[in-house]
Amino acid sequence: MSLKLSILGCHSATPRSFAYPTSQFLEINGDYFLIDCGEGTQLQLRKNKIKFSKIKHIFISHLHGDHFFGLIGLISTFSLLSRDKELHIYAPKGIKKIIEIQLQLTYSWLSYPLKFHELENKESELIFENERVTVHTIPLKHRIYTNGFLFREKPKERRINIEEVRKHPEIETCDYHNLKKGKDYTFSNGDILSNKEVTFDPPKPLSYAFCSDTAYYPDIVTQIKNIDLLYHESTFLEDRAELAKTTKHSTALQAAKIAEMAQVKKLLLGHFSSRYKDEDLFLKEARTIFKEVKLSHEGDVISIENS
Amino acid sequence: MSLKLSILGCHSATPRSFAYPTSQFLEINGDYFLIDCGEGTQLQLRKNKIKFSKIKHIFISHLHGDHFFGLIGLISTFSLLSRDKELHIYAPKGIKKIIEIQLQLTYSWLSYPLKFHELENKESELIFENERVTVHTIPLKHRIYTNGFLFREKPKERRINIEEVRKHPEIETCDYHNLKKGKDYTFSNGDILSNKEVTFDPPKPLSYAFCSDTAYYPDIVTQIKNIDLLYHESTFLEDRAELAKTTKHSTALQAAKIAEMAQVKKLLLGHFSSRYKDEDLFLKEARTIFKEVKLSHEGDVISIENS
User: Fold this and answer.
1) Smallest Cβ distance to A101: which of B40, B43, B98?
2) Which residue of B has its CA nearest to A14?
3) Domain B2-156+203-305, CATH
4) pTM of the shown model
5) Tell me, what's the ipTM?
6) Where in chain B is the domain with CATH 3.60.15.10?
């Protein structure tokens, strides 16, 4: 089980010389996901040496420009590079019209199938699933319809304890299939061998939640309980708690409160407002409540492994 | 008279780690113009320390993404920064729909008036004029409707030769107005004083033409004859002359031919394809025909003064 998160951009909307708006690239259990796609994301992917061909699923939290203005460029570039694989976009209703009108008015024909999955449900829903991973929306509280995303590895099978299993000559290799699934073994004489005696626990599945943009919103706590990594926006510090409230953003302290309530293993802060020159202040403020906190920086890679 | 051109991006569409698509900022005779606005232009403006408030007129050559995908981001950022001055966009028909649908679906209300001047004329036309500068379109030959832009300083008034004029006590300060306009002076006895005896020529007006994207298209030569600076795309070298022809781009040699025929003072090449690792080859190829040639690089500033 492994999770690797690359930070491509982690700043709020107003541009600075060397800061990019939101975008992340997640590698989880062998699958790849792009989360948000602010202006300049394609350049950041290049800088971070992430192959374009790995991107098959793009999740957009909400239709504010700093979270999706880089999408049309990426979609176009894929076509210039003669991509043929399907690309799936999961984003609030409206995205299809925005992209399609641009393709139409620029006389662009894509070299690959582009599939839109438009979101409008206000309850959490399963929006992606394969044999290895699930992705659920996390409804957030912002000025417009916004979802966070919860990525969870699926549990792997139990692992055979070869040394123990060999002590029972009656058990054959073809029985391993049931043992891996956690079933007990019934001998021909009717005796039962407890599964745990001949298998090891599988590695614990990892989980990651992306929560941006959002006001302080404790409703999300149940959904992200005990996850391994939480990215929570912290546009402001407590000195601007009122502004956070009116613009429906969070402070570093509020992000830390959510992390503490949800008992997550690690908190990652981001979406910093340009008004703060010293970003270490976000770290200090959050640490007053929650210790395992880290700031995002463009180019950072956060890796978690469970073996 | 002065002209200062800042290169914000000068590469063709496929992204590289440290290369930006087309955008230029032109300062001419005290006026400011942004030409094309590829993705990342707002970041490049910041890096080049160009104040956003200077931008009142944006010219878009054509609706291929590498020339305008940065426009929606810039328009939005201006609003986030509470701009109140009008912004004028001169671009092919379709731009209004593209921008307005994004503003509408992102629930954005601009803090300033946004005025579109949609272009569809296939003949050259005057699209901007004030007391100091004119801007004409230069119809180009590309896969879709495309205009270059010709920026010309208006001639300044003649300058009074104080030493000479004082030799004629009858001429008063209030007569200077007519002398500056080039009129001869008629003494009270009917004698005529030739204007040239008491004035200097004004500095020669400067001119700049932006021609991208375009196939080799000698029709433009008449319009750009003798200008001070020509930016002409050179996506390819002659080794890809066939590809240039089918994609309606130019080679460095073709750009040089245009410069030679138009007898421009200086040629600036750009819009380089990512297939060429050594950009000096563009310079070498163009120099076989035209000596006064320069390559664009992001961050370059080209200044011309006539005093």
Assistant:
1) B98
2) B77
3) 3.60.15.10
4) 0.91
5) 0.89
6) 2-156+203-305
